[in-house]
Amino acid sequence: MKEDYIKRINNILIFIDVNLDQELNLETIANIGFYSPFHLHRIFKAITNETINEYITRKRIEKTASILLHKREISISELSLQYGFNSNSSFTRTFKKFYGISPTEFRKSNPYKFSKIGKVESKNGEERGILEEYICNINNHKNWIKMKAKIEIKEMPKLDLAFITQIGHNGMENTYAKLIKWATPKRLLENENLKVVTIYLDSFKITEPDKVRMSACISLKEKVEVSGEIGLTTIEKGKFIVGHFEIGINEFEKSWSSLFIWMSENGYKKADRNPYEIYNNNFNEHPEKISIVDFCIPIE
């Protein structure tokens, strides 16, 4: 029964994701999951640890934060109207509850564009110290990419996938264990072109680690029947920055950050699709516990 609840909530989460700029009323959302509004409130909170309204508000704010970082041509007024806020002041108040600063300040603090910071004039040297530390950090990431990554711009093929949703950064290994347990008797792991993939539906940069939603996936060569918490999804073919890394498990965050900085520094813009990882080995079987992994960022 719990697996059926998770499947239906997954459908609701996907519906919300693609309709953040539309009116999202409780009755419509409940119908997507075949729940009564009363039961939806209870089950949604139990699975996601948030109420529906809390979740929708957070996702809208995080969506606007992503746009502020990557699409500077869109005005704050446009964003506030597009994502359901009655006024700029209402949007700003809500945004500040999440990030502690206004949308305007957030946009200026874009970590991939620090030219405005460089123009700060300091009377006491404090700002200059912040700037020097910041540039040092950026340069550190650039050097990391040079040492650790082979980067290509590639047309990546379409991938049909079976997945299980994971909310929060802890527990991904157990989620993959469940997926493999399901796939093994179906002989899905015998596919010679098998890909093991993690899709990031949220960004650790703008979402709290315990709320980040990810999909633990394996590729499929043909359609399969799924039920319960196992779902089906597709990564459409498209243009990607692909960074090939050989790294330790504690180096993933730095590698992702470095790749996004490389993207910005080289004039690419992230497309409105989800980044993902493809694992080319089982790091537990490597003598030095090294992951051989491709990080894929969709670009326009």
Strand % is 15-25%
The level of helicity is 40-55%
Multimeric state = single chain
Order of helices and strands: HHHHHHHHHEEHEEEEHEE
Report the CATH architecture of the largest domain: Alpha-Beta Barrel
Largest sheet, spatial ordering of strands: 1-6-8-7-3-4-2-5
CATH fourth-tier homologous superfamily of the largest domain: Regulatory factor, effector binding domain
Number of domains: 2
Name of the top-level CATH class of the largest domain: Alpha Beta
CATH topology of the largest domain: Multidrug-efflux Transporter 1 Regulator Bmrr, Chain A
Count the DSSP helices. Answer: 11
GO molecular function, one term: DNA-binding transcription factor activity
InterPro entries: AraC_E-bd (IPR010499), GyrI-like (IPR029442), Homeodomain-like_sf (IPR009057), HTH_AraC (IPR018060), HTH_AraC-typ_CS (IPR018062), Reg_factor_effector_dom_sf (IPR011256), SmbC-like (IPR050908), Tscrpt_reg_AraC-type_HTH (IPR020449)
Organism: Flavobacterium sufflavum
Protein name: AraC family transcriptional regulator
Structure description:
With 300 residues, this protein is of the alpha+beta class. It folds into 2 domains: 2-108, Homeodomain-like (Arc Repressor Mutant, subunit A); 151-298, Multidrug-efflux Transporter 1 Regulator Bmrr, Chain A (Alpha-Beta Barrel). Helices cover 44% and strands 19% of the residues. It is built from 11 helices and 8 strands. The protein has helices at 2-18, 26-32, 37-48, 52-70, 76-82, 88-99, 103-108, 115-118, 126-148, 172-183, 252-265; strands at 149-156, 159-167, 196-200, 213-219, 231-235, 238-248, 276-279, 290-298. Strands 1-6-8-7-3-4-2-5 form an 8-stranded antiparallel sheet. The longest helix has 23 residues, at 126-148. It starts with a helix and ends with a strand.
